[in-house]
Design goal:
The protein has helices spanning about 5-35, 40, 45-60, 65-85, 90-115, 115-140, 180-195, 205-220, 225-245, 250-265, 270-290, 290-310, 325-335, 345-380, 385-395, 405-420, 435-440, and strands at about 160-165, 170. With about 450 residues, the chain is an all-alpha fold. It has a domain at about 1-115 and about 290-440. The chain has a two-stranded antiparallel ribbon. A hairpin with a 2-residue loop joins strand 1 and strand 2 (about 170). The longest helix has about 35 residues, at about 345-380.
Length: about 450
């Protein structure tokens, strides 16, 4: 059995950790510290991802999974068809294709390199970061958009906040846009709930502060998506506890701890004001979109139906890969707008046509089905880590807006971590016993 050189493995793991920190703090660099480099920093994670992929391939550990090779094939063909039959701009095509040929394969590289202990280490780091970032969004929430802490990309003095409610703006945290803030705390919430069910694996003070951070983030973010995601994670945790009686008592303890955390935070005036803004946004948006059923049905399930209906109006090869991204629209028209569709599935089909576009969608859905089944199998044996991480992954991998680099980054990272959570190695240097190598 071949083993990878421990120095190479160490470098690859450091590369994934660098990807993680760049994802969290890339927006801070683009807004506050290196605003003059805002444009090149947008794709700063791509060269890193390419290096990780190349090194894993060179070591002979890139898995032979059909999801990976089919996606690379579609992305490569998409470049050619975009230039010959679509928008005709090679730079736009390459920018769009990098999602499929660099970022998506990285998910599988992470799944080979990391193991379950690495996944837990990253979770602990997320919890350490969560409280300071919750304080940051509180400052942003109550500061005017002209304040330095709310500067936009490239140092834009108009601010990075997005329309919220009652005169308050949705804060962006350390991210380029507000969606990054919501995704970050969705990610944190999954780990917080897992660690409450396995408190012996985390420092109790860190866990309590992270729990408070998640509670604070919901009203401060003015994000219904974050709220719904946490509800989904709680559902996954509860379902896991039903299959494993040893977690029943821990669910009760976690519920009591969260209740008292909420009780403490709710006494603070800043939290009460944010809650009023969140509630107002929640009620207004739900009324306009038909309530919870309208929100979930139209945003999630309705997206595929609309995309398939729209596919009959597209040319066979679509309008060209990359055209539906903000960078693509800027290069093609000189302004940032949705040239194809704001919805992810509509964008994919609009860019590449019905056959390749649906191919990308079904690859994503097929991958999610596979990790769901394997996560379920782990869950019924008492291992809830993959199962609870799935609660976040199944929301962003199938239909996350991959045209937006931050959403793409979180999708790839959580996908890789879910795969890695299946790896329980006795020898960390042996990658042949990874979940992907066993199933390829």
């Amino acid at each position: 059995m071949n083993t990878i050189d421990k120095n190479v493995l160490s470098m690859l793991k450091k590369g994934i950790w660098l990807y993680f920190f760049l994802l969290i703090f890339e927006g801070a660099l683009r807004k506050w510290f290196l605003p003059g480099l805002a444009s090149p920093l947008l794709i700063i994670r791509d060269p890193l991802a390419l290096w990780i992929l190349f090194e894993v391939w060179r070591q002979g550990y890139l898995p032979s999974t059909p999801y990976l090779y089919l996606m690379i094939a579609i992305g490569s063909i998409g470049i050619v068809t975009a230039i010959l039959f679509g928008h005709g701009n090679a730079f736009v095509a390459l920018f769009g294709a990098r999602i499929l040929v660099i970022q998506f394969p990285l998910m599988f590289a992470i799944g080979v390199i990391f193991d379950k202990e690495d996944v837990l280490k990253m979770g602990r780091m997320l919890l350490l970061l969560s409280f300071p970032l919750a304080v940051l969004i509180a400052v942003q929430f109550y500061s005017p958009q002209s304040a330095w802490v709310n500067r936009g990309i490239g140092g834009d003095v108009e601010g990075s906040g997005f329309s919220g409610s009652m005169g308050f703006f949705r804060p962006s945290g350390t991210f380029s846009f507000t969606n990054g803030n919501s995704l970050f705390f969705q990610f944190v919430a999954a780990y917080v709930i897992y660690f409450w069910l396995n408190p012996e694996t985390i420092n109790r003070t860190v866990l309590i502060l992270a729990s408070i951070a998640v509670i604070m983030s919901v009203p401060l973010s003015i994000s219904r998506t974050l709220f719904f995601s946490i509800v989904v994670t709680l559902f996954f945790a509860a379902s896991g506890a039903l299959f494993n009686s040893k977690y029943t008592g821990k669910i009760v303890v976690a519920g009591v701890a969260i209740f008292f955390s909420l009780l403490i935070v709710s006494q603070l005036e800043f939290f009460q004001t944010a809650t009023e803004a969140f509630t107002d946004r929640f009620d207004t948006a739900n009324t306009s979109e038909g309530g919870l059923e309208g929100v979930l049905g139209d945003r999630y399930l309705g997206g595929l139906i609309k995309a398939i209906k729209g596919s009959v109006e597209q040319s066979f090869f679509g309008l060209g890969i990359g055209m539906g991204t903000n960078v693509g629209s800027q290069l093609l028209t000189g302004k940032t707008t949705f040239l194809i569709s704001e919805g992810e599935w509509g964008r994919v089909i609009g860019e590449m046509g019905a056959i390749m576009g649906l191919g990308v969608i079904f690859i994503r859905l097929g991958f999610c089905w596979e990790i769901f089944i394997n996560g379920y199998r782990k869950m019924v044996t008492g291992d809830l880590l993959p199962w609870i991480l799935l609660s976040f992954g199944l929301l962003v991998i199938p239909q996350g807006q991959w045209a937006q680099p931050t959403t793409l980054g979180f999708s790839i990272l959580i996908g890789g971590l879910i795969i890695s959570s299946f790896n329980e190695r006795d020898d960390a240097e042996d990658l042949d016993d990874s979940y992907l190598k066993q199933t390829s």
